[in-house]
Amino acid sequence: MRAYFGRRYIISASHRLHTDALSVEKNRATYGKCNNLHGHGHNYGLEVVVAGAVNPETGMVVNMGALDAVVRNRVVDRFDHANLNLDPLFVNRVPTTENLSRVVYALLKDALPAGELARVRVEETENNFFECDSE
Amino acid sequence: MIYLTRRATFSASHYYWNPAWSAEKNEQVFGRCANRNGHGHNYTLEVTVEGEPDPVTGFVVDLKGLKEIMEREVLAAWDHRHLNLETPEFAVAIPTTENLAIAAWKRLEPAVTAAGSARLSRVRVYETPEIFAEYRGEP
Predict the structure, then answer these.
(1) Is A3 in contact with B98 (Cβ distance < 8 A)?
(2) What angle do CA B67, B69, B74 make, to 5 degrees?
(3) Averaged over A81-87, what is the pLDDT?
(4) pLDDT (tens digit, 9 = 90+) per residue, A7-58?
(5) Which of A29, A92, A104, B63 lies 20 to 30 Å (CA to CA) from residue B5?
(6) Pick from A99, A132, A100: which is nearest to A13 by CA?
(7) ipTM of this predicted complex?
(8) Overall CATH class of domain A2-132
(9) Do A59 and B20 touch (CB under 8 A)?
(10) Is the whole-model pTM more than 0.90?
């Protein structure tokens, strides 16, 4: 039977929303406080949902320890306590949470120990979140 | 289509153990969850039903009725129980969060369908705030 396993992680990171494609004024108008020159930070809530058949021997879609190792290795260790703008993946991409959710989806898609990546959800604050379910 | 979700909590103990495996393999795969003395969680059950609002009442489902179904079909059997030792579905199956979501669906689906107005859409079980599993009735 196909079921879904979801796991939450926390990533504390800084970012600045800014693009060189826009003028100083237009950046300010578009991104508001998020355009602050020296950046700011969030405790991002990351939710990873894996879909797949429940393995009859283990009762699991995916082994949580194995999933944790992949997510830590590929995503959490990379972005936690880091400045997102300085990551090579954000050199040509504004580190909006939309883009962060897409980047995380791409980093995990082919790396899962079992099952398929159904959805990545990134909560920037408790009042906004972004979901990505395909590339 | 409107989706309506109702939440309830229950507390239960369990352990993970596959009797076909050696003790070493159980400990390797299930880690601390393989402790045969068990451990416990405060689970959260989230039940989502789908349907069209009734033109007279504006309800997709009678929430009190849904609460009673959840209490009767799931909480009465699982709350403050040892899942491996006291529930028929986990006498054999391992009470992982995935299997809890599937078993809760099987318990709820006939009663939700019999109530008439809505269809069961999704069952989500949180083992901790950081771990959940979901079943949507897929084969």
Answers:
(1) yes
(2) 100
(3) 97
(4) 999 999 999 999 999 999 999 999 999 999 999 999 999 999 999 999 999 9
(5) A104
(6) A100
(7) 0.89
(8) alpha beta
(9) no
(10) yes
